[in-house]
């Protein structure tokens, strides 16, 4: 692995690792970075020893996972009774529905909402609110956490109990549903314990499609809420839109149903959709219907029929995130090669902070929740955005003890490897 250090013009240090070139795939979401592990370990180790770190051309890489034999699970029989070995309670405290816009939106929360900030998480296309469970479990000390299932995903359903079809998965509907959930949380659950908590302070965090959604929310909610942070995970506009032409062909190769929880988990890992078995097991109930559903075993999200919406999901992402939103900006990526030109320029101008999480796929927060949690907590405390520090003035003469980050080794000791 080639180690290097980057500095922004503001002196912000970025520790990064450049991996072998990767194929940008359309997967469960419109963007997946597929690291070629075999070539990465074999060739780079040789080049490093020779003192000549030459990167391979993409054309020399192995076939992408969808083209490899054995990565597709067989269709589940109609009578498959899928049971799950995990519960949302492993990472969240509660689950409830918010009725809005013809939907019963499923929401997960952790913590007591008596103080700000609210940390609001939005998942990517094809996933669910369970996607953020491993990260929420590690960062809930910094604020009240909430994550929803977008319409057409997870346990969110139409008023009649059916799952929303793909053509209703518009960026406008996604944003409207998120706004309704935020309104519900502050109207019906928020019990401020002190004067500082009177401000409706929110930290937004979104993965892939969810990143585009929170970038729009950050702009549109500025007058109604105190939006302190917009955090994106592995997404930028140029790369996402560039992956769209391959999306349909990739989706058509994906299994539409699974015969068991283990079949789903095996496929998620073998296709490199996820790298962590524990994360795959935890998210399984949000990806396929369980035994209580007439379509037990079938994939929930109807992404194929959402194709008319794909470009609109990401158009304007960079403008919202880098231009219109004036607050703190944080971006997690798997490698610096994933940045587009606009984001690179903004970073060099000191407009955002970037943290690189190497040896992960597209779902950084699930593949390596410990590292993402470490950098996330470190950033919140340094910028006075955590529960104990938000709205507290900076003292540049004396460091506040609450600004100290939680060491990565301590996070690993408390929560395990995350694998």
TrEMBL record:
InterPro entries: AB_hydrolase_1 (IPR000073), AB_hydrolase_fold (IPR029058), PPase_methylesterase_euk (IPR016812). It catalyses: [phosphatase 2A protein]-C-terminal L-leucine methyl ester + H2O = [phosphatase 2A protein]-C-terminal L-leucine + methanol + H(+). Its EC number is 3.1.1.-. Keywords: Hydrolase, Serine esterase. Residues 119-373 form the AB hydrolase-1 domain. The active site is at residues 208, 234, 362. It is an enzyme of class 3 (hydrolase). Coiled coil: none annotated. GO terms for molecular function: protein methylesterase activity. Demethylates proteins that have been reversibly carboxymethylated. Belongs to the AB hydrolase superfamily. This is Protein phosphatase methylesterase 1.
């Amino acid at each position: 692995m080639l180690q290097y250090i980057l500095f922004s013009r503001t002196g912000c240090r970025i520790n990064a690792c450049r991996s072998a070139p990767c194929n940008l795939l359309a997967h469960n979401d419109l963007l997946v970075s597929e690291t070629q592990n075999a070539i990465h370990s074999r060739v780079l180790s040789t080049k490093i020893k020779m003192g000549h770190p030459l990167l391979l051309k993409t054309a020399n890489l192995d076939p992408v996972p969808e083209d490899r034999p054995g990565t597709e699970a067989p269709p589940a029989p109609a009578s498959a009774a899928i049971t799950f070995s995990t519960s949302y309670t492993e990472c969240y405290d509660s689950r409830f529905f918010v009725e809005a816009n013809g939907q019963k939106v499923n929401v997960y929360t952790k913590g007591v909402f008596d103080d700000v900030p609210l940390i609001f998480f939005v998942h990517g296309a094809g996933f669910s609110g369970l996607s953020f469970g491993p990260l929420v479990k590690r960062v809930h000390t910094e604020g009240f956490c909430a994550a929803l299932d977008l319409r057409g995903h997870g346990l969110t359903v139409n008023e009649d109990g059916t799952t929303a079809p793909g053509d209703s998965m518009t960026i406008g509907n996604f944003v409207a549903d998120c706004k309704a959930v935020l309104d519900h949380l502050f109207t019906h659950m928020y019990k401020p314990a002190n004067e500082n908590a009177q401000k409706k302070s929110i930290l937004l965090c979104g993965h892939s499609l969810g990143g585009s959604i929170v970038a729009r929310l950050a702009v549109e909610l500025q007058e109604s809420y105190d939006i302190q942070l917009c955090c994106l995970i592995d997404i930028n506009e140029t790369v996402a839109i560039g992956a769209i032409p391959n999306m349909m062909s990739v989706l058509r190769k994906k299994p539409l149903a699974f015969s068991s929880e283990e079949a789903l988990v095996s496929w998620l890992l073998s296709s490199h959709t996820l790298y962590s078995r524990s994360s795959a097991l935890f998210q399984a109930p949000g990806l396929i219907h369980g035994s209580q559903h007439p379509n037990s075993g079938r994939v929930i999200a109807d992404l194929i029929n959402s194709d008319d919406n794909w470009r609109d999901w990401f158009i304007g992402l960079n403008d919202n995130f880098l231009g219109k939103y004036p607050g703190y900006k944080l971006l997690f990526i798997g490698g610096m090669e994933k940045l587009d030109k606009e984001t690179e320029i903004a970073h060099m101008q000191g407009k955002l902070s970037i943290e690189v999480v190497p040896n992960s796929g597209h779902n950084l927060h699930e593949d390596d929740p410990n590292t993402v949690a470490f950098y996330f907590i470190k950033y919140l405390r340094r910028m006075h955005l955590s529960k104990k520090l938000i709205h507290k003035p900076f003292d540049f003469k004396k460091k506040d003890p609450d600004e100290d980050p939680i060491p990565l080794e301590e996070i690993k000791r408390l929560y395990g490897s995350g694998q």
